[in-house]
Amino acid sequence: MRRTIFSAFFGMLLFGALTGCGYHIGGLKPKALAAMKTFNVVMMENRSLEPQAGVLMTSALTDVLQRDGTYEIAKSSSGDFRIEGCVTGISFRQERSSYTDSYLSTEIGLQLFVSYNVYNNKTGKLLTSGSTTATSTFFNSGNVQTARTNALSYAVRRAAENIADRLTNG
Question: Of 165, 159, 53, which Cα lies nearest the Cα of 115?
Answer without folding.
Answer: 159
